[in-house]
C-alpha cells in the first residue's frame, strides 16, 4: 500500500498555489532545497513524478494534479476532525452519560438537555433512568459519567471516589382526594394527617422519606397501600384510598381529582444532588452538563 505523507502533500498543494519553489519555501518558512527534496521524496513514495521542468521553473505533472484532487478530500476531513477535537477539548462536543431517578428526568435532565442543544449542539447527553441508590452504583462502576440522586442515599462521607454537587431542595406536598375534609383546611400540618391511611412504596428511598417525614412530625404512618410509581399512587389518592407525600418535581403526574396542599409548617424536603467521580467535574463536557443542571435547578427555585 502507498504511504501518504500529509506534510509533504501540504507542500505540494502550496507549490500549486504559489507557482514557484522559492515562493513555496517562503510561505512555509523552508529553504528552496528542502522543498525540492521533500517533493522528490514524495514522488518516490507515490511512485510517480510530481514535477517536470518548464523553462527555468517547474510545474506539476498530471499525476501531481490527480494526487491533489484526492488530497483535498483528506485535508477537508482533517480540518473537520481538528474542529471537532477542538470542540471536544473545550467541552463543546463529546458524550456525557447521565443516570437519574424518575422525577429528575423530566424536571431537571430534559430541560438541561434542551438548553445544551441550543448552546452546545455537538455535545451529546445520553440519559439512563435509575433508582436514586442505583444511580450512585452506576456512577461508581463507570456505567454513567454523572448521576442525579438524593442526598439521603449518598455514599458515606468517607467515600472519596465521588464528588457531590447540591442542586436543589425539593419540597414534599401532601396529595389529598378532592373531596377530603382537609383539602381546604387552613394551616394544614403533616401531624393533622396522622390518622389517615397512607400510600407509599414498600421499600426504597420513597418509603424511607415518607416514614422519616411522618416520624419527624410525631407519628408513624399507617401504610394502607404500596406503590412505587406516581401514576399509581395518585390514582389511588384520587379514588379516596389514602393520602401521600408527593415531591413538587413530580408535578407533571398530578390528576384533576387530587388536591396538592403545601404544608404550613414542618414541611419535609428531599435534597437533590448531582454526583461525579472525583476529578471528573473538571472535565469540560461534564462541566457543561453540570452547569446546565444548575441553571435549571436555579430556575425551579426561583
TrEMBL record:
Keywords: DNA-binding, Transcription, Transcription regulation
Entry-linked SUPFAM superfamilies: Periplasmic binding protein-like II, Winged helix' DNA-binding domain
Protein name: LysR family transcriptional regulator
Protein family per UniProt: Belongs to the LysR transcriptional regulatory family.
Pfam families in UniProt: HTH_1 (PF00126), LysR_substrate (PF03466)
Domain (HTH lysR-type): residue spans on this chain: 4-61
